[in-house]
Design goal:
Structural class of chain A: mainly alpha
Radius of gyration of chain B: 41 Å
Largest sheet of chain B: 16 strands, antiparallel, barrel
Number of helices of chain B: 4
CATH class of the largest domain in chain B: Mainly Beta
Oligomer: heterodimer
Shape of chain B: elongated
Order of helices and strands of chain A: HHHH
Number of helices of chain A: 4
Radius of gyration of chain A: 21 Å
Order of helices and strands of chain B: HHEEEEEEHEEEEEEEEEEEEHEEE
Largest interface: A-B, 45 and 64 residues
Amino acid sequence: MTNRLCNNKSYVWALATVFMLLATPSFAADQTSKPDPAQTARGAKAWAANCARCHNMRSPKELTDEEWAISVTHMRVRANLPGNVADDIIAFLKASN
Amino acid sequence: MNTKKYLLRTAFAGSLMLFPTLAFGQTTNNVSIEALLQRIEQMEQELSGLKAQVKQANSKADSANQNAAAAIEKAETATQEAKTAKQEAVRTASPSTTNNNGSDTKWHLAGYADAGLVITDGDGQDTFTSGKFNPMFHFQYKDLVLFEGELEFTTDSEGKTDVELEYSQFDIFLHDNATLVVGKYLSPVGQFQERLHPSWINKIQGAPAGFAHDGVQPANDIGAQLRGGIPLGSAVLTYVLAVGNGPRIGHEGGIELEASGNDDNNNKAVTGRIGFLPIANLEIGASFLTAKADGIDGMGVFTPSNADFFLWGVDGAFTRGPWDARFEYLNGERDSLFSAHEPGGDVELLPMMELEAWYTQLAYRLSGVTEHPVLRNFEPVVRYGEFIIVGSDELREENAQKRLNVGLNYWLAPSIVAKGGVEWRNFKVVGISSETLYQFQFAYGF
C-alpha cells in the first residue's frame, strides 16, 4: 500500500517536473540576459520620448528580442540616437515583449 | 490495494463460515466429518484460486507501475523535444547562428508595401496605382556594423517591373555619438526623404510639391556620412555630414538630385544637417548641400561648362500624443551654365535657376478625444505647400504649383493604414488648369 502511495507521489513530482521543464526554456533565456532594472527604466523613458517622433510606436510585442536589437540599431542611425540611449531602449523592449 | 483488502475480507469471511460448522461437527457426529473435509478441500481449492487471482492482480499492478514510469519517461523526452523544437523555432523565426542573445550576426527582413487608387479631374486617367513593394534587409555584426539595404519594386505604365536600389549602406559604429555611413544612402537633407516618405509613415499619399522627383529635395547619394547625436543636458544635438558624388544636370536643364553610380566631375557634393531637440517632442533642423554639376555634352558652337549648386533648408517637427505638426522649407540655386537639355542636343546658355519648396502639415489622431474602439483610430490630416521655380519655363510649367491636401486616415495597426484624401493642385503658369485628385491608399510597414 505504502509502495503504491509512494508511486503516486512520485508521479505527482514527475508531473511537476514536466511542467517545470516546459517552463524552463523561457525562464532560462530570461536569465542569460537578466535585465538591469535601472537600464530598463531608462529605456522605457527613452522609448516613450523618441520612438513616436517620426512614426507610430509599435507594441514591444510586435518583434522578437533579436528583431528589436536590429531595428533599434537601425533607428539609432536614422534618428541619430546616442548609442547608450539605443542600448537602453533595446533592454527595455527585450524585457517587455 | 483493493484486491488485497478484498482477499483478506474473503478469507476472514471464509474462516467465520468455517468455524460454526467445525464446532457443530465436533459436537454432533463423525458422519459429517467427511462432508466437512470435502468442504475444506473445496475451500482450499477456492483459496488457491483466490491466491492465483491475487498474484495476477499484483503483477497487473506492477505492470501498471511500469507503464506509469514509462509514461513519465516519455513525457520527459517529449518535454526535452519540445524544448529543442522551441529553440529551433525561435532560431528559424529570427535566424541567427546560435541563439537570441549570443549570436554575433543577426539579420532581419522588413520593409513596406502599398496599393492605391487615384481619381483625377485632370488630363490623366483614373487609375489603380500598382503600389510599391519595398523589401528591406538588415544584417548586423555585433555592435560593430549594420548593413541596411532597400529595394523598390514598382510597375511602370508599360506594365514592366521597375527595380531601384533605394539605399545600400554600411553603418559602422565608431562611438556612442558617431556612426560612419558608407554606400548609397537617402539624403539627410530635411525630414521628408529620410524619415517620412515610406507610405506607412507618410500621412498623405504622395510627397509635397517639390519634395519628389524633379523637385528640390535631394533623393539619395553615394558617398560617406558621419552622423550621430550628442546629449546636451536634457536636450540633444544631432548632426550629419556627408560627402557624395552629388547632383547632375537633369532633364530640361534642371538639377537631378539623385545618386549616380559615378561622379560627373571631381568635385564632391557636401551635405549636412544639424538638428536640435530642446525637448523630446520638438526638433528644429537646418540643412545644406553644396556641389558642382557639369553641363550635358551636345552639339553647337558652345562647350558645356559647370555650375555651382547650393541648397539650404530649415525644418521643424512637433509630435506629442495625438498631435503631429511639421514644417519644411528648401531653397536651391543653380548658377547659369552652358549645357544641352539632353545628351546630343544643342549646347546653350541656361540661365540661373532657383527652386523653392515648402509645406506645413498637421495631423491629429482622434484617440486624443475618444476611447471609442473605432473612432480612436481615425486621423484627419491637412497639408499645404508650394513649389516655386524661376529660370526654367519648361520645369515651371510642369511643376510649379500650390498644393493643398486634406485627408482622413484609419490606422488598423501602428504601421498599417488606410488613407483617403483630396489633393488640389493649383498650377502657377497661367493657362495650365488646376487639378483635383481623389486619393486612396492602403499601406503596411512590416
